[in-house]
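Q: Could you write out the predicted structure for this multi-component system? I'm mainly interested in how the pieces pack against one another.
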Amino acid sequence: MARKVAIVGTGQTKYATRRFDLSADDMVFEATSRALDDAGLTIKDVDAVVFGMAPEALDGVNCMDKWCSGASAAYGKPFMRVHTGGATGGSAAIAAAYHVASGLFDVVLVVAMERVGETPDAQRVLNRIYEPTLASEFALNIINVVAMGTIRAMKSHGFTEQHMALISVKNHLNALNNPFAHLQIRVTAEDVLKSPLVCWPFKLLDCCPRSDGACAVVFAAGDKAKKIARVPAWVKGMAAVTDIKVPGETGDTGWISADAALNAYKRAGIDNPRRQIQVVECYSPFSSMELMLYENLKFCESSEIVKLAEAGFGEMNGEVPFTPSGGVMCSNPIGATALIRIAEAAIQVMGKGEKRQVHGVKNALATGTGGSPGIGSASFTTAMVLGRDI
Amino acid sequence: MAERVAIIGVAQTKYEGKSSDALSDIIFDVSSRAIEDAGLNIKDIGSITLAAHDMVDGRAITSMLTAAPAGAHLKDEIRLAEDGSFAVALACLRVLSGEFTNSLVVGWSKCSECTGDTMNTIANLCYDPFFYRPSGLNDVISYAIQAQQYMVKYDITCEQAAEVVLKNRANAQNNELAHLKSAVTVRDILESQPVSTPLKKLDLPPWSDGACAMVISNASTAKKTKKKCAWVKGFGWSNDTYFSGEKDLSKLGSLYDAAARAYKMAAVTNPAKEIDVAEIHDITSFHELMEYEALGFCPEGMGGKYILSGATSMEGTIPVNPSGGCLSTNPYTAVGMIRVAEAALQVMGRAGEHQVPGAKTALAHGISGLSAQNNCVFILNKNL
Amino acid sequence: MPEKTELLTVPGVWNLPYNYSAGETISKFLIEIRDNGRIMGTKCSKCNRVIVPARSYCERCFISIKDSWVELPPKGTVAAFTLVTMKFEGLPDPPYIVAFIKLDGADTTFPHYLTGVDLSDTSVTRDTALLGKPVRLVFKDKKDRQARMTDFRVELVP
């Protein structure tokens, strides 16, 4: 990409099971206003808007983005809505960055949201994402399909429920430093292991919550970015890859393609992520996923996952902090979640992390994941490397 | 636009009311043919940009199941829940960024899989649950209200609107892919079943099954190909307020803006003179008339008189919808992309029996969202 | 001190009927189950993968494979599984095991319930031991088959 792009501001709402105090468009307005304020900009400065929202059945309004478009500063502006399941926030951000990189727009806002609280049971909706003529009768949902992949990975990579519990403990502890986080509770490994069994090996505290919330991020072109933000978070490299697979097929490693991160690294000039990336905001709604990402994101070999987990690799004072924000396990407004990863990574680079700031951040990685393995089924992955240096 | 992009391959399905093919097979077929038409192989495709709606497809994350047949395995793929013309716009941005040499764009709907009144119900469900949904609005009713306001403000008549249907349905007979191919008379139109005043059944499109795909390429690759290309001279899109009660319903506000953006980029100052053919989103007969005005083909309020002048007929100065338009073929999400495809075929000289002779510059337009909230316009040229 | 506003919620229910076209290939696959009690897959001539349930195209090689049919035996292994112990709205009452099954000779898998496991002692599924265990397909009587994946059940071989 010839044109340099940077993040110059972010905004988030406080995530909660339900935001009874805000309608959907109120929620979008809050996140959008905060992002513009953070960047010191007004609606007049916005050249275009990209909106991210995931399955409408979760929110109960079809194409809710149209209703909320005004609240996203898009009145009279170019506007389009992205939907790639859980990766939506990441895909929307990447699309916004391409708006700027194309040369046609200088300041582009990306806003993403979800009102998971409007439906009593998200998994009932997520049961309808699978192949309707062949897979609809078998009670598949996101939790049990990821559980199935986890069991395969436990066998091949050797980690246990105990290792998964450590991740849950770490994320809940980190969330206490994040004023926006939904779940702000301290848990012990024993709490996690004793929490109700959802579908093995997932107990309740291995899983993300259902959250309402919105997030907004402002992207700007190189020269403008330097004028807008004291420390812009430069997009060093970004990529998205769609992987089609079914659990247990020939060659299945238990996890989805790592190509999005690898492509982003290449474009960012990262050849040793463990040395060159100081913080990771990864998309992992389940404790086991974060462990898999140690290898998937090339921070270690698969045989080292257990060792890294036991050494506290991803803790706040570990070698490479993973999800200082508390991550998806503590806040999951699905369509916004992958954008929140990007916002939190930008916050780290820009030095705005306050109590959750990691020291000495030069580069941060944000990932997104959507869809799910299944018959003829796609998993969507996104990755963005943000850095202090242009 | 410093860099340029072009459409180098196009494919469409034979549109019909009820296809017995699986949705994934329809998508695989049109995607493969677009890649082939571009003279490429799946290996050569750098990125995929899709347009689809979950509720129309009846799949809670439709691209989970429809990305595979669109060639997305291990590719950079993204999906918009917008009319297909917006996916073409995003694909252009992706290629203009320099990150990709090309993008395969695919859009579809199989409206027949929505049983009973599902298509109307899901349109009603687009409205907020507090103010607009309880009034029973859906897309048809929202368009009817606009048509009514337009009629009243400018004395547009049902007969003038009927001319749009007459023209487009007659044009469809020269489009081998069109869904509705039977002739209609003005009488048929005026006496068709009233739906919501002033709209009658034949003022509205059918529900269709079908898909459209195209390949957007960067300039250096497009220049090397021996094939005819459709160069993107300009494009623009714009979003109006969702709250219909807060806008002037007699005109398509965001289309004025989208067109202005596209014309500026394309350096078009006199559309009626400079555009040889237009494929626009005739979501109702009255809307086509409103679109003439918003696109600057004629002054505001003059859409009815304009069609009577014959200017938009196949023999006129700016033939509109030689393909038969949305009124003949309406696979919902794909409609705007089909307009771009048909405009491309015109400047490529490949529009067969509905070719406008010598067409060099074509306009394409797509609508996304109820009450024509979001509009997208493309200007395509035969030459760079 | 401002008065606390009463915060309302407004109900809504979606009930949307759909009718999905299986198309030529999936129809043939399901009809083979109904009429002949057997599982057929399609094979890609480029990468040689055998895809079950049958698909008309290979998404990796991006070619049509709808004319290349292979019969699979009614037996295979557990490729992935989980025991569901929590109730989800609209889904069956727990406990039940959902699994992805790989038939012998297939390269892909399909989801199904796994039967023949004693669920009164759920500890048997609280480790990875079920992975790779052999299963067999048990078909309903022909008169009861409806050309659906539920025309057979998947049973752990004792």
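A: Regarding packing and overall arrangement: Chain C has a mean pLDDT of 91.
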